[in-house]
Amino acid sequence: MDKEVATATAALNLAGTDDDNKTQNGNNPAAEPVAPIPAPALPPAHTLASKMTVEETLAELNKSPLFMTELDMDNEDVKALQALAYEGTRLENGQNFKEQGNECFREKRWSDAKEFYGKGVAILATQETKRRRRRTTAVFSSSKDDGKEEEEKEDPEEVAKERALLEQLYVNRAACHLELRNFRSCTLDCAFALRLNPRNVKALYRSSKALLAVDRIAEADDACSRGLDIDEKNAALRQLAGEIVKRHEEVEQKKRADGERECKQNYEKRLLSAALKARNITTRETGKPPDMEDAKISLVPDPSDPKSTLAFPTLLLYPLHYESDFIKAFNETESLEQHFGYVFPLPWDREGGYSSAGVECFIETTAGGLMKVGKKVPLLRVLGSGKVEVVDELVKIFVVPKAKTDAWVKDWKEKKASVGK
């Protein structure tokens, strides 16, 4: 930077000398040359900066609020600028924040607009609270006590303007909350505005809009109706009234559909319970059912038809190989042999020990023993025998190769005996 300044200064001096020679000496080569004009002194700030590194220069600039990249709340200049925002009367400051909020709102910067409106509210609401407290005290106090706080004398016209501005700020902030989907905050701001002016149509409209958004239909309708009582030709309110009617019909229709569905589910549940009882099938729940997605005991094909048959989620267990197959709907009229037709051969059975003719099947009894299940016997005969129970809506059947059945049954009994001890 210093080199560039020096070069520019030298060029300026040289140009000045040439101009002076031409003017004063003319074409006389014998004339004496005029002394060069000195360069102007550099600004003090430039002189200071020229002795700094880039980092030091940036740090110096960052001390000024104009060039700050991060706001330093302890900086005196920043404090001074903040104080400027609150210079003037409450009304002037509130109006200033309202105008800034309006500018942000026009640019759809809802959050920023909300903050500006909120600052205006903070200025005016405190004083309004004091006024309300004084009015309340005046109602309940019949005499002036020596310790009574001296009432602040205010200009009635100024008070009216402040209250009108506070009302506008509440309504405007409610509009921001509505855009930001802060529906509860919207209704609260509208309530504050209506406390100041019960006939504020905008507050009634925005309150109704927010209530409708959370399906508080009756309250939304009440706010909208009150607004139309004040301004029956208001287009926005009339449109909102139509939306409320439409949403009310949708909600009522959904309630009816939900009620009908619940009634149907309850009927199907009672019918299923009656079907199990009629077949002497015992069921039990542990509170920790296995994850079977949507599989469950059901009446098929129509769960609401008493003539339908029962179907059970069933787990085929291969205990010697720690494998299993899940059958989502094992009908009460079907036998194991019918399902073995598509289950066998098993992909992991390298020895070929599992086939419909080469296996024995067992089910655990209620007493903790084992009951043999015939492969051609319908499932209903097994479950309705009174000796077994269906736990957590899942039927479990053990499948063991015939050659290893005796050893497996013996091992089962020994394990059960050891657990019993």
Report on this model:
This protein has 421 residues and is an alpha/beta fold. The protein folds into three domains: 2-61, no CATH class; 90-139 and 156-248, Serine Threonine Protein Phosphatase 5, Tetratricopeptide repeat; 298-420, Ubiquitin-like (UB roll) (Roll). The chain is built from 14 helices and eight strands. The strands form two sheets. Strands 2, 3, 4, 5, 6 and 8 form a six-stranded mixed sheet that branches. A two-stranded parallel sheet has the order 1-7. Strand 3 (309-318) and strand 4 (323-331) form a beta hairpin. It is elongated, with a radius of gyration of 45 Å. Mean pLDDT is 84; it is low at 1-32, 78-82 and 146-150.
List keywords for this structure.
421 residues, Ubiquitin-like (UB roll), Serine Threonine Protein Phosphatase 5, Tetratricopeptide repeat, 6-stranded mixed beta sheet, elongated, 14 helices, alpha/beta, Hsp70 protein binding
| CATH-level-2 architecture of the largest domain | Alpha Horseshoe
User: Mean pLDDT, rounded to whole units?
Assistant: 84
Gyration radius over CA: 45 Å
Biggest β-sheet description: 6 strands, mixed
Q: Kindly report the CATH topology of the largest domain.
A: Serine Threonine Protein Phosphatase 5, Tetratricopeptide repeat
Assigned CATH superfamily of the largest domain: Tetratricopeptide repeat domain
Name the beta content range. 5-15%
Which parts are unreliable, with pLDDT below 50 for 5 consecutive residues or more? Answer: 1-32, 78-82, 146-150
* Number of extended strands: 8
The rough form would be described as elongated
Helix content: 55-70%
User: Helix and strand succession?
Assistant: HHHHHHHHHHHEEEEHEEHEEH
Q: What is the CATH C-level name of the largest domain?
A: Mainly Alpha
Secondary-structure content class: alpha/beta
What's the number of structural domains?
3
- Report the end-to-end length measured between terminal Cα atoms: 96 Å
Number of helices: 14
GO cellular component, one term: cytosol
Keywords: Repeat, TPR repeat
Family: Belongs to the TTC4 family.
Region (Disordered): 1-42, 134-159
